[in-house]
Records
---
Amino acid sequence: MLWNLATKWIVAIKTSIYIYVSPVITVILSVLILHEKITVISIIGTILILIGLVVSQKS
């Protein structure tokens, strides 16, 4: 239901960008708020997500 509402307010492409950035924000907030240690896998995942976003925006 929230996905449909968000898609109505902003275009579908921008909505999908927010969905892809969500894990990156989660990692950052977990480090800042919960004081969790950042792992190599979360760094690699964050980098891959950001590269994917850059590549998808250039197309």
---
Amino acid sequence: MGRSNFLTTLLSLSLGVILFSGNIATAQLRTNYYANTCPDVENIVRRAITTKFQQTFVTVPAVIRLFFHDCFVSGCDASTIVASTPGNKAEKDHPDNLSLAGDGFDAVIKAKAAVDAVPKCKNKVSCADILALATRDVIALSGGPTYPVELGRLDGLKSTAESVNGNLPHPNFNLDQLNKMFSSRGLSQADMIALSACHTVGFSHCEKFSNRIYNFSRQKPVDPTLNRQYATDLQRMCPRDVDPRIAIDMDPTTPRQFDNAYFKNLVQGKGLFTSDQVLFTDRRSRNTVNTWASNPKAFNDALIEAMTKLGRVGVKTGRNGNIRFDCGRFN
């Protein structure tokens, strides 16, 4: 066999192993995964998350962002929850993750404690699965759709800050950049747009979008796609000398409701980030925005599909993971 043919064959076999492993991981996921080991796990998690939700609404965007950041970096393996140690700077301490609200971590830790308080369930349910369930629950608690959650993820065995580099979308991304990053995780443009709508809840610090409302030489919006009145409102809430502690709602209309207002806002030029507004300004994604702005059921259906597919990214199985006793540290 010639060298070129040998390399081609080797590459094909390697790719086959990768695809086969991915199929095994996806096949492991099922809604009744804990039917024998912890049959009431969903109710246990839901009660814990409901209690946390009643304490603070921040739980909603905090848990959703934690799930997204976790899945996008190393796969859905709860590696973002692991705390740094003197010998290892973990994912959660990377600059792109420092804005993750503590209530998201706290919600998962408390739900894990509630699960482990049941003798039959103790150390039987992964932190990764608890995070996936918690995400579904906070979406439903804030008015969004509920949906069946596939379970069977193991927790990751490593967490490094370096792994975050270049693996999270940024507020200034254009459509091509967004599609490329989501596509690399098996997510379509429609999935990306649906997941972007999670910005219908939560807040952002002024520094993340100040370039859109100031050119720092004249008092006018830099970004012409920004609604003028909305720009004025943002300038009032975020002074020129940006205080990084100032945070505003990402959805100016229904910030405490998980709904399709995100798309209605985009139609009106009220997308907070460049990566939000581009979904309407770019003709390739505009029709989807218009459809979901007027059809909440279509959006909910798309969101469920997108969240399910997101939950399949980078699932750990076999020797690639375990069930952590403490979500914040390795066993």
